[in-house]
Amino acid sequence: MNFNTNTDLDYEPLIVVEGKNDAHAVRRALGKVDVIWTEGFGLTEQKLEYIAEMAERRGVIVCTDPDFAGKQIRERINKRIPKARHVYLSVEVARNPKDHDIGLENVSLEEIRKAFSKILEVKISNTDSKDGVKIAEKNTEAVVMADLRQSGLVGQNCSAAKRSRLGRILGIGDTNAKQFLFRVNRFGITKDEFYSAVKQMEGKGMGSK
Q1: Segment 60-76, tens digit of pLDDT
Q2: CA-to-CA dists, residue 52 to 14, 45, 55, 207, angstroms
């Protein structure tokens, strides 16, 4: 799997975020990029059609807030536009320490740039698997729950913190173990890439940035 480490693509994709302040934050971090916001759950059919058209013409990158609403909006877009690529943020970097609000607008410019250095493309559709099990049956190179257990990502007191750290390295955000496994397989992350990231996580330590 190849991560895009340069936001200067051969063409300029449309970046989709939730709110106007999120769009301002992305532009401050990435420069004069083309951004559209969904207005949260106010995403209209007309705007969705426009995003779908742009996906065909020049590509679309979706970056929503790392919360339940953001997940719902992302999945609605992905269901309609399976070609959309994705950028994930962790709750840790998106949380406002003052009021604990979670949103892209709270993320530092450096963390936004880091997140957009790992643009992910869906390899497995929602209909192929919802938990990674069917993927593993078809592909022996797929990451399975046993790999998460072996890496301490499930079943330990520090598992959530480890998933958060590893999620930032892989660019898939932080979530529960089942969704973590789903995202790993959905974006075609191989066992080798997974364990390479685990080694990187362990080498840097949990306190590293």
Answers
A1: 999 999 999 999 999 99
A2: 10, 10, 5, 40
Running DSSP on this structure, what letter comes out for residue 112? H
Q: Compute CA distances 145 → 44, 132, 133, 152, 169, whole Å.
A: 37, 8, 9, 11, 19
Q: What residue has token string 């705007």?
A: 47
Cα–Cα distance between 20 and 162 in angstroms, integer? 32
DSSP per residue, 29-89: HH-S-EEEE--GGG--HHHHHHHHHHHHHT-EEE---SSHHHHHHHHHHHHH-TT-EE---
Q: What is the rounded distance in angstroms from the CA atom of residue 184 to the CA atom of residue 196? A: 13
Residues lower than pLDDT 70 in the chain: 1-11, 125-140, 204-209
pTM: 0.83
Helix (H) or strand (E) holding 15: strand 14-17
